[in-house]
UniProtKB/TrEMBL annotation:
Identification of the protein by name: Sulfur carrier protein ThiS
NCBIfam families documented for this protein: thiS
Matches recorded under InterPro entries: Beta-grasp_dom_sf (IPR012675), Mopterin_synth/thiamin_S_b (IPR016155), Thi_S (IPR010035), ThiS/MoaD-like (IPR003749)
A UniProt-annotated Pfam family: ThiS
This protein's encoding gene: thiS
Entry-linked PANTHER family: SULFUR CARRIER PROTEIN THIS
Length: 67
């Protein structure tokens, strides 16, 4: 499956079928992130069941602390 992830076309492994699996593949599942899929922000409680489809446009923003 091919998606556009943060502006770049990426081919995902076939086991990556949900937002949660996508975050896990980038080791982001424990980080504070915001995920937008096709223009809609996905609530964190829906990551486990939010399906990813071929051609989706996904933006992942994660926060970096600092002082």
């Amino acid at each position: 499956m091919v998606v556009v992830l943060n502006g770049k076309q990426v081919e995902l492994a076939e086991e990556i079928t949900t937002v949660r699996a996508l975050l896990a593949s980038y080791q982001l599942q424990e980080k504070i992130v915001v995920v937008e899929q096709n223009g809609e922000i996905i609530d964190r409680s829906r990551y486990e069941n939010a399906p990813i489809a071929d051609g989706d446009r996904i933006e992942i923003v994660h926060f970096v602390g600092g002082g």
